[in-house]
């Protein structure tokens, strides 16, 4: 037979354990990376087809002048602005990549703010290179990018999700 103070101690211990678990869950959720969405008012009247990167590249000619939303890894360097497949199994060469043609006609701002994607903010620029992104824009087959080394381009970019 358990003594009354043992039952009470067990109840407090159970309550304390539950609180510790709840605090751990809340702490882990607060550390999770918050998605940032940069958008413009360009193309708001257009319907975008969501498509996988590999499917898009395999049938790129079918999407010429079409508006798409696709995910991949953004790579940026001197004379490079490209979207490549974020799978380790696919070829990441320029021939299997899309030139990303950002335009001043479609300025991208962090949702709910006046902070631009390419603006200096909080002591630094928003880093998107080597990150997985989701991008919306128009596929243009005849734009092969710098030195015509890409399979095509995505222009009129109106959304970037980091």
Summarize the structure.
The protein is of the alpha+beta class and 162 residues long. It has two helices and ten strands; from the N terminus they run αββαββββββββ.
What this model shows, in words?
- The protein has helices at 4-31, 53-58; strands at 37-39, 49-50, 67-77, 80-84, 98-100, 109-110, 120-121, 124-125, 131-140, 152-161.
- It is α+β, with helices and mostly antiparallel strands.
- The strands form two sheets. The protein has a five-stranded mixed β-barrel with strand order 3-4-5-10-9. A two-stranded antiparallel sheet has the order 7-8.
- Strand 2, helix 2 and strand 3 form a beta-alpha-beta unit.
> What is the chains' assembly state?
single chain
Total beta strands: 10
Helix and strand run: HEEHEEEEEEEE
- Principal-axes shape call: elongated
Low-confidence stretches: none
Average of the residue pLDDT scores: 84
Category by helix and strand content? alpha+beta
């Amino acid at each position: 037979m358990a003594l009354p103070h043992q039952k009470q101690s067990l109840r407090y211990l159970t309550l304390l354990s539950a609180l510790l678990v709840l605090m751990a869950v809340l702490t882990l959720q607060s550390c999770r990376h918050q998605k940032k969405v940069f958008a413009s008012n360009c193309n708001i009247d257009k319907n975008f087809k969501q498509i996988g990167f590999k499917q898009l590249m395999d049938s790129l000619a079918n999407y010429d002048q079409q508006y798409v939303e696709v995910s991949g890894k953004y790579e940026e360097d001197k004379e490079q602005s490209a979207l490549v497949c974020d799978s380790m199994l696919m070829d990441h060469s320029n021939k299997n990549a899309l030139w990303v043609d950002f335009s001043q006609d479609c300025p991208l701002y962090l949702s709910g703010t006046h902070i631009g994607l390419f603006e200096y903010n909080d002591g630094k620029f928003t880093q998107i290179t080597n990150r997985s992104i989701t991008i919306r824009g128009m596929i243009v087959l005849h734009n092969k990018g710098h030195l015509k080394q890409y399979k095509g381009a995505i222009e009129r970019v109106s959304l970037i999700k980091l």
